[in-house]
Design a protein that fits this description.
Rossmann fold, alpha/beta, 6-stranded parallel β-sheet
Length: 201
């Protein structure tokens, strides 16, 4: 099978890194454990554009380069590569694709066949912005691993199964036939094995 893998908060701990950056530079006192929304502007009352600007600013910081990998991911992925093809599908903008590729090469060398950036932070009207399902269909992805509930319906509509990586900001998402909550990379591996057996059985 071909498996799509989100980057931020599935492969790397983006939230903790950005929260630390934002707390230091903008006087907030956020913590990852208390983040009950994916949208930072909902916490500050500021506009999406303001927060987007800070995220783009963060992309040029040392903190961005030093995002830590998620525990257990590399070990699980190395096992998965023995039977499956893996592609990164991230909502990051294309202008940080080179930095993203460098980070992936540093922490997950030789594991992924492709790294795709959907420009998810751009406005809906921008033709450079793509749904994650666009790349899932392009590469024949059967399973998408993601933490963001906003992509779930998009993938479900295309009959792509989603393994939702458990986080504080996706607790209200209801599970369904094509949506399975997972709490660790060990659980991800177990579920992929079960789904692969069902597909071939």
């Amino acid at each position: 099978m071909v498996i799509g893998v989100d980057l931020d908060d599935v492969l790397g701990d983006f939230f903790s890194s950005f929260i630390g950056y934002h707390n230091k530079n903008y006087g907030t006192s956020w913590s990852r454990e208390t983040m009950n929304t994916y949208y930072f502007h909902e916490l500050t009352g500021e506009s999406r554009e303001t927060i987007r600007g800070r995220i783009f600013e963060y992309y040029n910081s040392e903190e961005f380069k030093k995002i830590l990998p998620i525990k257990g991911a590399k070990k699980a992925l190395l096992e998965l590569t023995k039977e499956h093809d893996l592609v990164v599908i991230t909502s990051r903008p294309e202008f940080v694709l080179e930095k993203t590729q460098t980070w992936v090469e540093e922490h997950y060398s030789g594991i992924f066949n492709e790294i795709c950036a959907t420009n998810g932070y751009l406005n809906k009207e921008d033709e450079r912005k793509r749904d994650k399902s666009y790349y899932c269909l392009k590469y024949g992805v059967s399973i998408m691993i993601d933490d963001f509930y906003g992509f779930v319906d998009d993938c479900n509509d295309k009959n792509i199964k989603v393994l939702l990586y458990d986080t504080p900001w996706n607790q209200d998402v209801l599970m369904g036939e094509n949506l399975i909550r997972v709490n660790s990379w060990k659980e991800i591996s177990e579920n992929i094995k079960l789904l692969a057996n069902l597909k071939t059985g």
